[in-house]
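Running this now, will post back.
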Amino acid sequence: MRGSVRQPWLLPVVLVVVVLTGVAGLAARALYPPSSATTPPVSAVVPTEAPVDPTDQPGPAEVKGTGDAVGHPLYDQVRALLQTHFDAINATDYRTWTSTVTADRVRGTPEKSFRQDFDSVQDGTIIVYRIETSPDATARVMLTFTSTQDLADAPAELQSPCIHWAVVYPLTLVEGQWLIDQNSTSATPQHEAC
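Update: finished.
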């Protein structure tokens, strides 16, 4: 054929360009993750300072997390543990409650004391803010919640039918399961009347 000149070097050059473009694309993808990876998951909540109507206290009993907490690898386990824990308190279900705490904490809270302390308590608006893990199989969970209760079940230092709590729950890994432990961080929570 006239006018048709084969250039043997053209095919290898095109292949090299295609391969280099693919490698550059993969490198860029690794260095710059998609924008959706930097936004909080849909299930994350943004805490608000908007006052809750007193008749709606303590708020929903569902445990939720902020973007920081939801992004933590342990969030699903921690959320499930706390949901079971708070559901047990709301139902005054001692047996289920004992499945969420360490043996030391169970020994420190016999069933009679649990029932006396929590018989009118309802917890809600439960928000996990942060989860911090340690190499020694322990973790700390920073959360807030609201409780309503009869004055007889309110803490002696804050006799109120509605209390906002800010606490740090220590967790310990026991036989592959995270449990709420007992130590000084949970013994002195911050709290104020609603």
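The longest strand covers residues 122-134. More later if anyone needs it.
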